[in-house]
Design a protein that fits this description.
It is built from nine helices and 13 strands. It is an alpha/beta fold. A hairpin with a 2-residue loop joins strand 7 and strand 8. The radius of gyration is 19 Å and the shape is globular.
Length: about 260
C-alpha cells in the first residue's frame, strides 16, 4: 500500500505542479493525499464509465491527464455527468488526480511522447517558458530520420496515431523534415513554429480560419485532441511503475475520446 501523495509525487517529480498554467487545475482534485491505495488506474479523461471501471476492478486512485473539475462547481448534485462522477468517486473512496499543463510543459511530457510516436529525433522544447530553463515549455520541435513528401508524411501521422482522419492546410509541394508538434490544442504556438522554420506542425483543435494562418509557409495538421495526447496514459503509467516497482498501475480500458467519426 502507498499513500496517494507518494504516487502523485512520481509524476510531479518530472512535472512539478508549479509548471501548470495559471488557468489550470492540476493536482489532486478528489480525495486525501494520506489515503493508502494498492493500485492506480490511468486515463486521459475521467468519465462516469472510468469511475465505474475503477469500482468494478477495485481501484481507489484514478490519475488522468485532463482535469475532472475545471470550472467552479456551484453545487454537487446528480444533475450532470461531471457531478455524478464526483459523487460516485467520493461514495466509493476513489481519489482522483490529474496531471495537465504541468505535464504539457515538461521536456519529457505530452509533446515529447507525440514526437517519439512520429519518429522524430534531436528534440527541443518549442517555446520555453523560462529563459533560464529551456527544458520547460510547450511543444517540441525536431527532425524526421528522412525527409518525406507531404502525402507520405500525412499517411505516416495518420497511421502512427491511429487517427480516423486528418485535417490540414494546403499542400506546398515541399519535402517535410523539420517538424513541430504540440499535443492537444496548440494553435497558439503557430508563430513560434513559423519562426523556427518547421516544414510541418502537428497539433489539434485548429479552427476553420486558423488554417489560413499557415500562409504558405508550412503544412498545418490537425490530428485530433485525443489522438495527439493519448500516449500520455502510457507515460504516466510507465513513470510510476519505474519509480515504485511494487505498485500496480493499469491503463483504463474505457475509450474516452469524445469525438466520433462517421466515414
Amino acid at each position: 500500500m502507498k499513500k496517494v501523495g507518494e504516487i502523485i509525487g512520481c509524476i510531479t517529480d518530472m512535472a512539478p505542479l508549479e509548471w501548470q498554467e495559471s488557468w489550470d487545475n492540476a493536482g489532486l482534485l478528489v480525495g486525501d493525499t494520506n489515503m493508502l491505495v494498492s493500485k492506480a488506474l490511468v486515463t486521459l479523461d475521467v468519465t462516469e464509465a472510468v469511475v465505474d471501471e475503477a469500482i468494478e476492478k477495485g481501484f481507489h486512485l484514478v490519475i488522468s491527464h485532463h482535469p475532472l473539475i475545471f470550472k467552479p462547481l456551484k453545487h454537487i448534485l446528480p444533475e450532470n455527468t461531471l457531478e455524478r462522477t464526483v459523487i460516485k468517486a467520493i461514495k466509493n473512496d476513489i481519489a482522483i488526480a490529474c496531471m495537465h499543463t504541468n505535464l504539457d510543459n515538461s521536456r519529457l511530457g505530452v509533446s515529447c511522447q507525440l514526437a517519439k510516436r512520429l519518429g522524430m529525433n534531436d528534440l527541443h522544447v518549442l517555446e520555453p517558458v523560462d529563459k533560464f530553463d529551456v527544458e520547460v515549455g510547450g511543444g517540441m520541435v525536431g527532425f524526421l530520420e528522412k525527409e518525406m513528401d507531404e502525402r507520405d508524411f500525412l499517411d505516416m501521422v495518420k497511421r502512427n496515431l491511429g487517427a480516423k482522419a486528418l485535417r490540414h492546410s494546403g499542400f506546398l509541394n515541399k519535402k517535410i523534415r523539420k517538424v513541430a508538434v504540440c499535443g492537444g490544442a496548440g494553435f497558439f504556438l503557430l508563430d513560434v513554429v513559423k519562426r523556427c522554420e518547421a516544414d510541418a506542425y502537428v497539433t489539434a483543435d485548429v479552427k476553420y480560419h486558423d488554417f489560413f494562418e499557415a500562409d504558405g509557409k508550412l503544412l498545418l495538421v490537425d490530428a485530433g485532441h485525443y489522438e495527439t495526447e493519448q500516449f500520455t496514459k502510457e507515460l504516466i503509467a510507465d513513470v510510476i511503475s519505474k519509480k515504485i516497482t511494487n505498485f500496480a498501475v493499469s491503463i483504463s480500458e474505457v475509450k474516452t475520446n469524445s469525438i466520433n467519426y462517421f466515414v
